[in-house]
Amino acid sequence: MRISIEAVPRSKEEFIPLHYNSYLQGYIYSMFKEAFPQLHDKGFRYEKRSFRHFTFSRLFSKGIRRQGDSLKIRNPIRFSMSFLMDPMPNLAIKHLIQKRNLRIGNGEFEIKDASAFTEPVTGEEDEVEFDFQTLSPIVTYRTIEKNGKPYTQYYTPYDSDFYELIKDNMKRKYTSIFGKEPKEEHDCFIVPTDINPKKSLAIVKYKGFIIKGYTGRFHYKGNGKLALIAYNTGFGAKNPQGFGMADYYNVKTA
Predict the structure, then answer these.
(1) N or C: which terminus of the chain has fewer CB atoms within 10 Å of its end residue's CB?
(2) Of 117, 147, 163, which one is at a domain's C-terminal end?
(3) Bond preceding residue 182 cis, omega within 30 of 0
(4) 138 in the same domain as 55
(5) Measured distance CA(154)–CA(69) in Å, rounded
(6) pTM, whole model, 2 decimals?
(7) What is the 3-state secondary structure (H, E, C) of 195-222?
(8) 166, 231: one domain
């Protein structure tokens, strides 16, 4: 389930950190702190990996301005978050009904509206085809050894590994959800359709670490279950840190 939130500044202008992902992530985890604490502590396991199966978008607002290491906000802000596994959607809705305060760093906002959206695919399609636009950057990487030390190698939409890692990630999520490996026919193909070399790279600081991701438009053709998983949990890696969310459009089913 995808939920879109609109919030307004509590004062004439509010200042939030330039790199705000960890604050939005903390807000989302707070929704489940009491009723579903294992989401933060354990998640959903696949071998040595743990998935949280949610993601969220960037913040969007008219007239947002950078001021040093902060963003100055005077107008309403919007962002979306998606959840795949129960009981997350119901707990998120319950939280939004009961609590209207949103704090991002030192910025205080009042939640004015929250809307849930129908998923664009059911997950039952043998094949589905659509275009998608990123709402937060897609991250793909491998940890390699460089000069005798671990090094994070990030990939771009111009690298074939970028798409192979996205597919591998979706299939690992599939296994963590259904408890079995996806079948051979559970496959997909993703190609870029509109990538701006000068604007697509996003560099985000997250708790002292640098994360590199890419925005743009892509085309997907493949299995419906994988498409549904990606819609609700994000494409690529580091989804619960606010990466890989996308909007689907021009959806066609076989």
Answers:
(1) C
(2) 117
(3) no
(4) no
(5) 25
(6) 0.93
(7) CCCCCCEEEEEECCEEEEEECCEEEEEE
(8) yes
Q: How much is the CA Rg of the chain, to the nearest whole Å? A: 18
CATH code at position 179 = 3.30.70.1900
For residues 100 and 102, what is the distance between their CA atoms, to the nearest angstrom? 7
Specify if 198 maps to a domain: yes
| Domain residue limits at 145 | 128-253
Q: How far apart are CA 114 and CA 127, in angstroms?
A: 31
Q: What is the pLDDT along the chain (254 residues), one digit of tens a residue?
A: 999 999 999 999 999 999 999 999 999 999 888 877 777 667 566 566 777 889 999 999 998 999 999 999 999 999 999 998 888 889 999 999 999 999 999 999 999 999 999 999 999 999 999 999 999 999 999 999 888 888 999 999 999 999 999 999 999 999 988 888 898 888 999 999 999 988 999 999 999 999 999 999 999 999 999 999 999 999 999 999 999 999 999 999 97
Q: What b/e string do you get for 147-178 counting C-beta neighbours within 10 Å, with b at 16 or more?
A: eeeeeeebbbbeeeebbebbbebbbbbbbbbe
Domain shared by 112 and 203, yes or no: no
Say how far apart CA 147 and CA 208 lie, in whole Å. 22
Provide the number of structural domains found in the chain.
2
